[in-house]
Amino acid sequence: MSIARFGPPGAVVFDMDGLLLDTERQGSVHGVTPNLSTYYRCIGRRSRDTRQVLIDGHAPGFPFDDVVAEWNAYDATNFRNRPPPVKPGAREILGSVRKAGLPCALATSTREPGATDRMTAVDLDRYFEVKVTGDRIERGKPDPEIYLVAAAELGIEPGRCWALEDSANGVRSALGAGLSVLQIPDLVEPDEEVRSLGQIIVPSLQVANELLLAALAR
Q: How far is Cα 7 from Cα 216, in angstroms, rounded to an integer?
């Protein structure tokens, strides 16, 4: 794989769930077992944008509000008692970004205070000068707004920023904003259409870190 077509980053923007934190796996709640193909279409989106996707993908009468409330209550309790698992390589690549003196932002569909709660629980919140969360934007991923806001608040042109994402929705958002994108798939392997979008796909954050360091050394 080659990053020759990526310029050295002037800033780096990270997704959170499924990329830095292993938080995308869902179990049965409120007597409902998620239809996985439907659930996967929701990854990377804000909860308010997934309502119709989930309703259409399950049986009539799908109790969206009850299911989401129970998911949220489970997450809040679970993360309070046990911090979310950090993905392998997350601390290393964040450390490389900081050591290089690169501006760093979080661009997550998760709302506040949940995003800060999760990142603080695992001591990752301190790496980010800017956090753009799902409640701060009008249009969620795959719309590019969240990445445009992140780049603007960092004071770096989008074309000089790298984005790290796990989901297809996140990749489309970052590419649409003009960022160079490294995709590290989590639950869903990208299909042919997603592979053709223009990102570089790598198997892990460790490999992404190696590419980042190589780009900085050029």
A: 9
